[in-house]
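Quick one: structure tokens for this chain, please?
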Amino acid sequence: MKHPWLAYLIVSLLAVGAGLAIAGLPNDEPAATAIVGGTIVVTPGTEGSATSVSEPSSTEMTSSSEAPTTTGAPTTTGAPATTTPPPTPTTTAPTSTTEPEPSLPDRSEIVAISANGSGRSGVAAANAAELEALGYTNVRTRNGTNVVELTAIYYAEGFEESARRMAADLGLFPEFVSPLVESPQVQLLPADAQLVVYIGIDRA
């Protein structure tokens, strides 16, 4: 044979063809897929065993697809702090502006003069008896040099309030109280006289 290589080529082609015939040609049909009892089954187009793909277990699905946990509504740590109301302002009653009454000497300590200025006899003594009944125990009688219509009381320095008290005792108005230097002249007036009741016609 002149061309031995050609024989070798023919033999090789025959061997390849025989192998393909034994193994079978590849199938171009798409494999069929089905879910049976939770298992995915893939069926090839011609022959061959079915391949099963297991579905993930419920535990795996639960762990991977768990919904986010809700933390719930915020909890309060306690009752809200109580706001203390501002203090209510207090009203202080105004203090009395009335000055305390000065301490007066007792009526029995006053050196009083009952001066007759009415022009009638016995008036000084009658007025002295009235004063003694009121508590003025140190009363002396004198005669005035002038006759007056209204009775008035005259006081030495420092005895103005005592004179006002005597005027109230005798039922005289406060306007009938004056300093001793304004008194009509009194005969034999003692130097220690503190209050002089100059009796007018109104009390005669």
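The radius of gyration is 72 Å.
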